[in-house]
Amino acid sequence: MLDEDSKATKVRCAMVEIEVAGTTVTVHVRGTHRYLALREYVSFDLANVTAVVPAEVDLRPPWLRTPGTFFPGVIAAGIFRGKGRKEFWDTMFQGDGLRIELSGTDFTRVVVDVADADAVRARLTRSAAA
């Protein structure tokens, strides 16, 4: 799944595809989740990543959805704002989520469901450290 020799690495995930190309991370939203999130992708620089950790199951997005979809305990997809935060979410709250904390960029947090959280977290951590 991960090819250490390639310059751009893509990791297939549950609802998103995470691509690391050079110093840019792009989260591509897949399938019908594009309509629910009202967004095709989110990009940020590796230098802006402050933490990559598993998303807590009880973690909830800020209260203002701009734009997106939210059904409590079922799905959060789209952009959410609150108290100086701008976050992108695409999760179904089933414990497969990854929380990426950011600083110095448009978004302050990205929370997405992934098929293999450990592989994605390791790849982003290795890439950010390089």
Which oligomerization state do the chains in this entry correspond to?
single chain
Helix content: 10-25%
Q: How many H/I helical runs?
A: 2
Q: Please state the CA-atom Rg, rounded to the nearest Å.
A: 14 Å
CATH architecture: Roll
Low-confidence stretches: 1-6
Biggest sheet architecture:
6 strands, mixed
Chain-averaged pLDDT: 86
| Beta-strand fraction estimate | over 45%
The total number of structural domains is 1
Structural class: mainly beta
Describe the structure.
This protein has 130 residues and is mostly beta strands. The chain has a single domain (8-129), classed as PH-domain like (Roll). The chain has helices spanning 33-37, 117-129, and strands at 8-12, 16-21, 24-29, 41-45, 49-54, 64-71, 75-82, 85-91, 97-102, 109-113. The strands form 2 sheets. It has a 6-stranded mixed sheet with strand order 5-9-10-8-7-6. A 4-stranded antiparallel sheet has the order 1-2-3-4. A hairpin with a 2-residue loop joins strand 7 (75-82) and strand 8. The protein is globular, with a radius of gyration of 14 Å. The model is unreliable at 1-6 (pLDDT under 50).
